[in-house]
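For the sake of transparency, this paper describes our internal protein records without simplification. Such a record has a labelled line for the sequence and another for the backbone structure tokens. Nothing more is needed to write down the fold, since each code stands for a local backbone conformation. For reference, a complete record is included directly beneath this paragraph.
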Amino acid sequence: MLALAAAGWFTPATARPAEPRPEAGPSAEVSIQQVQGSGATSPWLGRVVTVQGVVNGLLSSGFTMQDDAADGPLEASRGLQVHTRQRQGLEPGVRVRVTGRVEEFAPGGERLKARQPAAGTTTQLTDVSLLERLGSATLPPAVPVRLPLPAGQTLERYEGMRVTLQGPLTVVDHALLGRFGQLTLSAEGRQFMPTELQRPGAQALALAQRQAQQRIVLDDGRSSANPSPVPFLGAEGTLRIGDTVAAVTGVIDEGPIGARVGDASGYRLQALQPVNFQRSHPRTAAPRPVGGSLKVASFNVLNYFLTLEGGRGAESAQELQRQRAKIVAALRAIDADVLGLMEIENRPDAAADLAQALNQAMGAGIYAAVPAPLAAPADGADAIQVALLYKPGRVRPVGPARRDERPLHHRPPLAQAFEPVAGGERFSLIVSHFKSKRCDDERPADDADADQGDGQGCFNARRVRQARALAEFAQAQGPRSLLIGDLNAYGQEDPVQLLREAGFVDLLQRFEPGAWTYVFQGRAGRLDHALASPALAAQAIGATVWHINADEPPLLDYKLEGRQPACARCAADGWRPDAFRSSDHDPVIVGLRPARRP
């Protein structure tokens, strides 16, 4: 996972000069605002203090308290977090007096006890020696907040306070929902990958910064992993990216917003009551019709491995059965005449296994796998390959399948010519899977392949060379060719731009502008493409994306580890044998009407 701070997930607290350190003493009774101070670090760090306030929220690790009396710097928060297990008799609206040590809690569990700048930490009281209940009080009203904040402000001034984040707010990421009960919300609707909308460079980077200012992480108030029940889920046991809520009330804190220790920290809104999301982006039982007499689809099936316990794909027979059931449900609903698949295990029977599973569900002989040599590249062999399935009753292969075995491919493209059984001109389908954007891939990037800081990630130079080779390979297959697959490049990035400049027509851009196939760190975009040569583009009737995966939470996939119940009608861990979250990429579907041969 890339560092979220580098990706612009949050606006970090602005470090300010620390206020003068208070005189030493055994204990001091001060206001919450004095403890918070106007900087990122409390001026009372390491001191034992006594404060008073009204409990405004209960957390799994303690509670938060707030005092509306202004008695400190104007920018200072009037809320404070208390880390303690002594919560008996506490509830929102109880006034308390607390004595404890001031610390800054940092991601990964570190507490800063020395005087040092500490952006990204939460000021809290620990080592509580006194917790006195003073009776009932009026719960402080929630402060209305709207993103983006005015220039120069951060959420530091609201740390520990009840706020109402005004919307509408849109779910843009839920990768950590099942693991940590976290979501990312946006105040500007669905967010797209900047290089899906802009050419790489300054404009794309500026867009990423603007997007970061519109975001906040919504947390469920629990610090434990794998929360049960999973929070925030609604109808059908899911929460989809694109779902919305009018406003959310909770308490602001700072803490980890990444999956691992050392990942980024940021401001979070701890939800202290149920949040009811509206299904603004509903599921559909099948993809939108694309027309034509032939249907072609592209689908990255996320490491479909028959080899178990190999570190990729299913790790047990039960997981493989669950994975296969979901993929079959998706492919059956797509009902394509030709299927281009990515992330199939590089062994001879992997694609045939999926064809057999489809035939068991749909009828004998419906699908067959295109016989193809195993991918055996010379430069960086991969455990996965691309593959093709087809309906013998609808199309017939013409000649053998071909792979482009040039060394720059570590997942060589696969081409197969087809003729419609009902008559029509021959066309070639070429399925590809370009080099990943990950900078920690199996080989370190050289200078050209290193991240250039323009929004395209690592190995862009390699992907550009692969795109140029793909254009040459396609032209050698004949005048009517369709390029499908996961190019690991968004719509305005160099590899896709090169293919368009080579004359290939972007069918999604033509028929479904604004579509996406993947969501990464809360930003949607097209990694999966369908580009046709001019002769075949004239025979393309439609193209669409079926949003069954990228918008669904990972907790619904086939994996067993760390799973919790998601809905009453699901399996014990939320799994269902349906198409939703059968992968992490959405399938692309194209409708063709091949012309009759003269």
Residues 338 and 555 are 30 Å apart (CA to CA). Residues 317-334 form the longest helix (18 residues). Confidence is low (pLDDT under 50) at residues 1-24, 109-118. The chain has three domains: 28-136, 143-271, 294-592.
